[in-house]
Write a structure and sequence with these properties.
This protein is an alpha/beta fold. It is about 40% helix and about 15% strand. A 6-stranded mixed beta sheet has the order 1-4-3-2-5-6, sandwiched between helices. The longest helix is centred in the C-terminal third of the chain and has 22 residues.
Amino acid sequence: MTPIIKLHNNDLPDGLDFGSSVAVDTETMGLRPHRDRLCLVQLSAGDGSAHLVQFDGSDWSAPNLKALLANPAVLKIFHFARFDVAALQQYLGVTTQPIYCTKIASKLVRTYTDRHALKDLCGELLGVELSKQQQSSDWGAEKLTDQQRHYAASDVLYLHALKSRLDAMLEREGRTPFAEACFQFVATRARLDLAGFEDTDIFAH
């Protein structure tokens, strides 16, 4: 089934409703939020469609997107939330909450492997093969290619389904409380990264 992909400039349109949970991902110019600007925010309600918000680098107002990210009634589902939440905080000035992270959930229950990338999760748990070919492309380009748009959409289209599978595994292994506590700490971990503690294990001796 071909996903429905809609591209928006600098914000979500008025009146868009994602329901009680929304999958979220970001694309940036690199892996350092202080240096590498936010270029794209992808969102999906888990219904086979994706909304891509492309930022031009000059307008960060995005009132509709910010309201959604901060809405306590809407769960935001990420894969490696730590990075995305930091990028959203750095450029949009918004604290994203509440949070679910499929990478954290995977590390808590898929202890039989060290492969916790989105591609690995989709392959094992959903039987879906993702292409990561566009991962390192120029997301700051004025016009995104069809390949970039489809890659960006694929990063959010399957997060709801992964959450469902991972929730069952967390429950089975009795680790749901651990996961919930970790999810609550993500926003603080992101703020620590932005404060210069990204390479420091604050729990180490």
